[in-house]
Amino acid sequence: MNSMTLPDIAAQAARQALPLEWVGMRGIALPVLLEGQRLSAKADAGVSLDDGEARGIHMSRLYLALEALEQKNLSPALLHQVLKDFLQSHEGLSSRAYLNIHTDLLLKRSALISPLAGWKSYPASIFASLINEVFHVELKIEVPYSSTCPCSAALARQLIQQKFIADFANKALQHADVLAWLGSTQGILATPHSQRSTAQLHLHLDDFIDEFPLSVIINDAEAALGTAVQTAVKRADEQAFALANGQNLMFCEDAARRLNLALRRTPGISAFQLRVIHAESLHAHDAVAESHWQREQA
Ligand SMILES: Nc1nc2c(ncn2[C@@H]2O[C@H](COP(=O)(O)OP(=O)(O)OP(=O)(O)O)[C@@H](O)[C@H]2O)c(=O)[nH]1
After folding, report:
1. Cα of 60 to ligand 1 centre, how many Å?
2. CA of 60, closest atom in ligand 1
3. What family does the entry list (predicted)?
């Protein structure tokens, strides 16, 4: 049997004539190249079905167009070309094409003090569209970090002060006694709570960028927060992390403001929405802040 004899249901007329906004496939397994790394990704590929009379789109043509992503570094130009291929293979049927790529970028991170390093993965998604010949691309990246509550830190410090008054009132201060007291849990009797937190960054990119600035954005975000989650950790690194947390006490509002001010300076970003989620250890619910920004038109 050759393909001429195979029934082609997609070519039939639709029973109910109605255009559709998005038709395609979600979760296609795909190896991609990003920042020089071969990564496992999932792709969502779709087009509009403008011709309400047509029964279906040609899924295989979208699927095969994705082959172009296997050998070349993911770039806006490459995604633009794939979206053009989607539309060329659906001439007369579709005017809008969509391609989302979901992956985890891996970055090697040095320890704070010791000469060690380890890998961190950052969930990243790229959303590209070609609508009426206008190409648009957006990025979503998740950056994990640590946040220590400034209110909890102040309350803990007050308890320590009160204990100091109670333990040393009416006593001549001896350097050795104070030093021992400072090193004891009887003296430093309270600690602030901290939590693993997540920054969800949704970024609109300039049309003219050549590459996706993923690691630049992640580095800028981590530098702004100051308390990136660590990989390989020895005690010296953990101590440096404790210092970083103590010097970067953060409500979720502080984190959102820091990220906003950092990302608006990051090249290649024309607008963003960001959300920070502090998975509170004080509460069973999260503390969340959101912030938007859009570059003013020149
Ligand atoms: N349109 C559509 N196709 C589907 C769906 N589920 C599975 N398919 C299958 O996707 C396969 C590929 O479709 P096409 O791209 O039209 O395949 P084809 O007709 O051999 O290829 P062309 O000659 O390029 O059109 C077909 O075997 C369809 O049955 C669906 O929900 N909608």
Report:
1. 6
2. 15
3. Belongs to the GTP cyclohydrolase IV family.
